[in-house]
Design brief:
about 80% helix; single chain; mainly alpha
């Protein structure tokens, strides 16, 4: 196995472990690291496949806490935004993609670390807006999580409900993104080979993450991840 594929396997393991413990973060960790070793379109296609696999595993774990009723507006908005994001990805230069990804990471990390708690959003129609933003970011960068996380926080979802609901929302995004990449012809033999390498790391990362979830301080772990995202995003901007 080449050094690049070893790095890919390590990145996948850490990204999945983060998702298993916190409920999100897979694409936020994996995308900026993978684009250092493979092309952005290949990274986006691979991460979408990884995300679907991981979200199925996560949903099986938290299925009893799932509350579907408040999610449909988010899903509708997301489905509108996804194809726009995928088309944008294929039209943008690599430097632009990396810069925008850096802006997303730095903005989200700073917001999550320092912003005061959100007021509760009572108008359910805001779900369309947050869903569209998530679909746009998911289609282009596989980073559709932040709008969903912000909306879920504003609804005061309990931890297990938050994790369960988030997996459903992200899965709608990911399945749609996978389909869009498939139609666009992005699933080359190289991407499928990388997914075959990633799959055992997905299973291992999920298993270790679920085990750690019983012992780790989730709030402290989340802050560590946010600082890491801030560093990665700053590096993309400087680069």
């Amino acid at each position: 196995m080449t050094p690049e594929l070893l790095i890919l396997a390590a990145v996948v393991f850490f990204a999945i472990l983060t998702q298993a413990v916190s409920g999100f973060g897979l694409a936020l960790i994996a995308m900026p690291l993978l684009v250092e070793i493979i092309a952005p379109v290949e990274a986006a296609s691979l991460v979408a496949l990884m995300a679907v696999t991981t979200q199925v595993i996560m949903l099986l774990r938290y299925r009893r806490a799932l509350v579907l009723r408040p999610l449909w507006r988010l899903m509708v908005g997301s489905l509108v935004g996804i194809p726009i994001g995928v088309i944008a990805l294929s039209q943008l230069e690599s430097d632009v993609i990396l810069f925008v990804l850096g802006v997303i990471l730095v903005s989200y990390a700073l917001y999550s670390l320092f912003a005061p708690p959100l007021p509760m959003i009572k108008n359910a129609n805001w779900g369309y807006v947050f869903g569209f933003a998530s679909g746009l970011l998911g289609g282009a960068y596989n980073t559709g999580g932040p709008p969903f996380v912000i909306y879920g926080s504003s609804q005061r979802w309990e931890t297990t409900v938050f994790k369960a609901n988030l997996q459903v929302l992200l899965m709608v995004n990911s399945v749609s993104v996978v389909f869009a990449h498939l139609v666009a012809g992005h699933y080359t033999p190289i991407v499928l080979r990388d997914y075959a390498i990633a799959l055992p790391m997905i299973l291992l990362g999920a298993g270790v993450g679920f085990w750690l979830d019983r012992y780790i301080d989730e709030t402290r772990f989340r802050k560590i991840i946010l600082v890491l995202l801030l560093v990665i995003g700053a590096r993309l901007l400087v680069g």
